[in-house]
Every structure is written in structure tokens, then in C-alpha cells.
Model the fold of this input.
Amino acid sequence: METEAEVARVAELQAKLDMEHSQFEEDKAKMASVVHLPSTAVIKLDVGGRQFKTTTATLCREESMLSAMFSGKGFKVEKDEDGFFFIDRPGAPFEHILHYLQTGVFIPPTDPALLKAVQLEADFYQIESLIDQSTWHDFTFSDLDDNRGVLYWLGTKKGTALYRSPVDAGLVKVVGAYNGRNLIERTAGDGGCCYALDQSFTIELPVAVRPNRYCLSYATATGCRRPANWSLSASVDGKAWATLCAHVDDRSLIKANRASWPIPEQEQAFKRFQLTCTGASEGDEEDEDELDEDYQDDEPTPCKCFHVCGFELYGQVHLE
Done:
């Protein structure tokens, strides 16, 4: 007959076996939840209540939290009863993230709040290339009459409202011009001045821009001579200025009322831009005597007219 000691020992062994079996089943369940799928496998996702369908290859386009979830690296994700992998994150920004992973192209949403949400989710999922792209927005020049420039975008409150002069709205500050609003607007209104040698117009923006092109118009309403010598500079702090373009005997605004010029590629982003008259206007040397008589000056003074308007920038804007 079994002694009480033997019964106790058997019971102890049974309890130990039961515990080990329970642990085994638990580990087995955990292993089953780790996704091991081929790259062509179709995956159904439920992200914050919004459902998506994609492939493993798309989600593993680059190293990220998503690739860790679905590349068999041991990141645990749960399937629901309908076969969806549930991710407890906002669904609306994920639509833009998935589109980027599918195409390699990021199209920023026009709603600033949604754009910020996409930036946060790109950071959460650790999609490094999208983190970089989602914080910079490209403004690409199309033609002289397009509405794709940075200043026009600011005038629409970053794409959320009908256009209003960003100067009038207090979003852009212009210093030194006759009329700061006219310096930005593509009208015949005058933003410049006469006898403007070394005269500078400074445009201060609320966003940082890596510029690659700019446009400028001659203020036709003035009837004054057209500018031929000027420079465009930029600054981060308003103290140190870097020359982006230097125009010497430039006939662009003599041949037409509006023109554009490429800006060499910039690694630095700037919030302050400055237009400076650097020399005589078109036709000055030939007309000095006539100018003196018209203006009744004691000494010959070639006109350094700098009557311009319609300043516009293109490039990459840092979305803060």
C-alpha cells in the first residue's frame, strides 16, 4: 500500500507536470501569434477601427516597426475573429502612411492637423524616410502664373482658406519697401523705390525654406526704368546674409514684366530673404542728362530704380 509520503510525492509531481504543460500551452500560443508570412501574402489590418488590405512586401518596404511585426522577427500582433491584425493607433493618418509604403511617394495632406498626425505616426512606426519627407513639403515651380509658391500657400493659411495677402494677414513681414503688400502681390502696384542703390527689401517668413527658384515682377504702374542690377540674399538670424543670386545687367525684366530665376541648391533653410538694388537701372547712362533735367538735381545722378512686385519663392518648406 502507498504510504502518505508517496501519495504526497506523486501529487507534487503531478502538480509540477500540470504547471509545465500549462506553460507549454502558453508558449505555444505566443509562438502562434508571431507572423511568419511570405512576402506576397495578403494582410488585413484594422488600424484604429479603419480596415486596410495590403501585402507583407509593402509593410516590409523598409526597416520599421511594421516590418518587425510582419517579417517573422518575433513582434507579437493579434488577429481578431475576422482575420484582421489589430493595431491600436489612429486610422486616418495610416492611410497616408500605407500609400507612401505602396508607392514611395508622399503626398502631404492639406489639413495641417492631419499632416501633423501623419508625422507623429511616421515617428511611432519608425519609418525613417517618411519622417524626413513628412517634415518637408516641396513647392515646385510650374509657370510664372502658377499658385504653387510658398507665399501664395501662406496666403491660403497653408492650404486651409481662400487666398488673402499674407502681409495683410500678418503672416509675412516686409521691411524697407514702399508697400509691403505690393512687394508680394503680382500686380502693377509698386513695392520698390527710386534712387535705390543699396536699398534692401527684407521679407520675413513664418516658415523655413530651402529655396530653389524665385520670381519677381516689374511694377509697370510706376512708369519708371526697369531694374537690371540687384541681388537676392537669405539669412537664418537676420544678421549673417548669404547671397543666393547676383544679377548684373540682367535683361529679364526689361524683356518681360515677370521672370523667374533658379537658385543654386541650398542645404540650409532660411526664414529671411532680402532683395537689394546693386546698380543702375536699364537705360540710365544714356539718359543721365534728361534725368537731371527732369529731377532738377545739381549733380548728374543715374537712376537706380528698383520698382518691383510679385516676389515669390519655390523650394522645400520645413513643416514645424
User: Anything to note?
Assistant: Residues 30-35, 284-301 have pLDDT under 50 and may be disordered. The chain is about 30% helix and 25% strand. The first helix runs from residue 4 to 33.
